[in-house]
Fold these 2 entries.
Entry 1:
Amino acid sequence: MKTSFFLKSLPALAVAVVVGLLSSCSGDRSSASIKVMLLTGQSSKYHNWELSSSLMERFLSEVDFFDVTTVVSPLSGEDLSGFNPNFSDYDVVVLDYEGDGWSEAAKSGLESFVSGGGGLVSVHATDNAFADWPAFNEMIGVGGWGGRGDDFGPKIHWFEGKAQLLNTPGSAMHPPKHDFEVITRAPDHPIMKGLPMRWMHANDEIYSRLRGPAQNVTILATAKADKTKVDRGTDNHEPMLMDIRYGKGRVFHTTLGHCNLNDDESVPALNCVGFIATLQRGTEWAATGQVTQTVPEDFPAAEAVSVR
Ligand code: ZN
């Protein structure tokens, strides 16, 4: 389902009423259905929200117990004052949004949803958004660009066997896109359990030197620029996948998933089985705290990328 926010509001309300009636009859919500809101609608000139969100809508819908609704915000520069999604109708909100600031009502709606136990997933350039929204920065742990300078809290990286905060100068950057190795750092975490310790991710940006409050963050996987392939990049193991806790809520932050304005549906970074499977698993975990999905047989190995 994909529609604009305003067109969607009335049917969504009707559906919510029906679901409310059904659940009051059966006593509880069926565990066979996790209600996922994919929220998109704006990106900077460096990204293509229409392409990334359409691919993510497809990937999420492949999970048979996900009930996916795509909510499209007003476009960049349009009036956002009436944009206030009903987060509480969902179990988890997946953000593919890098754009204009929201109203106070929408911001406090998301804060209440997550702090009250709702799930949140932040994908790639979403962590470029909302630098001036303190609670959002807490929810995503660390972010980059959009006004985040050297004084925007510590960086976080993996060093000597554990996550460490880094207060040295230097704001967000990424090396040119290349295939790189992702290293699992929390193999017993539900999202990571059963995944290879090392796997190759396809042609993506390694978001580096992200900064923020960096509180309540568990690094799930890291990557380091391969200097044999690219001429830029930090020498740090940068966080690629993270678990952040905000109140009673769980946040899955994936920095993976770049697509350009001129990319097409075959864009490798999103069609990488590693991106797809961790998005699907992270969304379930953010919603429920568990992952019941099996690891796909075509998940990439240490030697080569695997792109669908
Ligand atoms: Zn990007």
Entry 2:
Amino acid sequence: MPVDTSQPYDDSNIFARILRGEIPAAKVYEDDWALAFNDIAPQAPTHVLVIPKGAYVCWDDFAAQASDAEIAGYVRAIGIVARQLGVDTPGYRLLANCGLDSHQEVPHLHVHLFAGRKLGHMLVPE
Ligand code: AMP
């Protein structure tokens, strides 16, 4: 079910539960600001989700509400994950779905990191 981002943060969402340790995840990186784990239904040989530790629904929510330290920590973590995975060469794609039209399914901000094959050209044409 796509996320309606006009709704407030729902603390029972699956990524909030992963952050609280209530359900397992295949973690690839963690620091004070971010957690990265393998997507449960990978769409590329490398498909990692990087989430901030704070309670934010999507990117614009995060940009408006998060502290400078949270924003810097999260953005840096995404870059660290890319390098630790060794995908900075030959390359990778970052994607953040936000809201109904993007078909965001989990209402906790996450960036998808895809790598490990040729990823094609941007969006699938209509
Ligand atoms: P989005 O459509 O951008 O909200 O993507 C949500 C992603 O979360 C999808 O790629 C799912 O496969 C992934 N996902 C859902 N539940 C889990 C889980 N428990 N562990 C890892 N990834 C998950």
